[in-house]
Amino acid sequence: MEDDLVYIKVVRYGREILVAACDADLLGKTLKEGDLEVCIDEKFFKGSLVTIEKALSIIETATIANLFGNKIVGGARSRGLIHADAIITISGVPHAQFIEL
C-alpha cells in the first residue's frame, strides 16, 4: 500500500501556497551526487500520507511546489503541472520545483 502513497505538506503564507511532496520511501533520505547533497527532511516534507491522486489535486492549488520522487514528479508531469525540461535527477531521483508568477 505504501507504494502508492506520498507525503505532502502544505504551508500557507498570505496568498502563497507552498506544497512539498515526496514519494513515501524517500522521506528522511539524503541524496548525494558529486558535491551536491540534498536531504529530504521530515521537517519540510512530512505532512499527510496520501494517495498520489490526492497529492496531485492539492499540488494543483499550489503557487510554489517542491517535489521529489518517481511517482509524484511523474504524476505531476502527466497531469501537465511540470514540464519535462523542469525535471532534474539527483542520484537517480527525479526532482522538480515550480513557482507560479
Mean pLDDT: 95
CATH architecture name? 2-Layer Sandwich
The Cα radius of gyration reads 13 Å
Oligomer: single chain
User: What's the total count of β strands?
Assistant: 8
Query: How many domains would you count in the coordinates?
Result: 1
Q: What is the strand content?
A: 35-45%
The structure class reads alpha+beta
Separation of termini? 36 Å
List unreliable stretches of 5+ residues. Answer: none
What count of helical segments does DSSP give?
3
CATH class: Alpha Beta
Please name the fourth-level CATH homologous superfamily: uncharacterized conserved protein from methanopyrus kandleri domain like
What fold name stands as the CATH topology? uncharacterized conserved protein from methanopyrus kandleri fold like
Shape: globular
Q: Let me know the largest β-sheet.
A: 6 strands, mixed
* Helix proportion range: 10-25%
Walk across the major sheet and give the strand order. Answer: 5-1-2-6-8-7
Give me the secondary-structure topology:
Layout: E1 5-13, E2 16-23, E3 30-33, E4 36-39, H1 42-45, E5 48-51, H2 52-59, E6 64-68, H3 70-78, E7 88-90, E8 93-99
Parallel strand pairs: 2-6
Antiparallel strand pairs: 1-2, 1-5, 3-4, 6-8, 7-8
